[in-house]
Design goal:
- By secondary structure, the protein is mainly alpha-helical.
- It has one domain.
- The chain has five helices and five strands.
- The strands form two sheets. Strands 1-2-3 form a three-stranded antiparallel beta sheet. Strands 4-5 form a two-stranded antiparallel sheet.
- Strand 2 and strand 3 form a beta hairpin.
- Helix 2 packs across helix 3.
């Protein structure tokens, strides 16, 4: 039985019209004017996810004094998911032509957690691994070295304040809002209001 979902996202492959997939569009790549608003739209769910993960991390970190072992494991999970989201935001924001002093740090921490804790550590290129270890001041005798506190995450000798992550997310959100506002002004992006059965409008 087919089930229709009322909410979601569709993005067509190049050359197809997302409104009517039977229509083919020009094979020309998107212009510099249209690409940023598409990329920033794709960044937005991961930015919102990162904001949620910060809150989840803070909740888990608050339990560290009373439930040290289980709370540490939860903090590792929440930090891992947080930096996965931050890494995705970095990719899209950079493609929009914007960079931030923390971008390489977010990528390094994400990759340290991903490759050291998960399944890919032994398959990783030694130079890439060593360069990252140097940037994070990791002890070469340790495969992973990560610590948690209520207001910070420490990877190797590198301390990331939760306040700095929050500040970055505000910066990234402003970048996305600015791009979408310009795209709307230039006619590349449109927000529509849906008229309810009662005749009112909701946005």
């Amino acid at each position: 039985m087919l089930r229709k979902m009322h909410y979601g996202i569709k993005i067509s492959h190049k050359g197809f019209d997302v409104i009517d997939l039977s229509k083919q569009r020009s094979q020309k790549p998107p212009s510099d004017k249209t690409l940023p608003h598409l990329l920033s739209s794709l960044a937005l769910p991961y930015l919102l996810g990162a904001k949620t993960q910060v809150k989840r991390y803070e909740i888990a970190a608050a339990l560290l004094p009373s439930q040290s072992i289980s709370a540490t494991m939860v903090c590792l999970h929440e930090a891992s998911t947080l930096f996965e989201d931050l890494n995705t935001v970095v990719v899209y924001i950079r493609k929009c032509g914007k960079d931030h002093k923390s971008h390489q740090l977010w990528v390094d921490i994400r990759n340290h957690i991903r490759h050291a804790v998960r399944e890919e550590y032994d398959r990783e290129n030694d130079k890439v691994k060593n360069d990252r270890a140097q940037r994070l001041s990791l002890d070469p005798k340790l495969q992973i070295n990560i610590g948690f506190d209520k207001d910070a995450i420490k990877v190797g000798e590198t301390v990331v304040e939760i306040a700095d992550i929050k500040s970055y997310l505000v910066w990234a959100e402003n970048i996305i809002a600015e791009i979408l506002s310009k795209a709307q002004k230039d006619g590349y992006f449109k927000q529509e209001k849906v008229v309810s059965n009662s005749g009112g409008a909701s946005g």
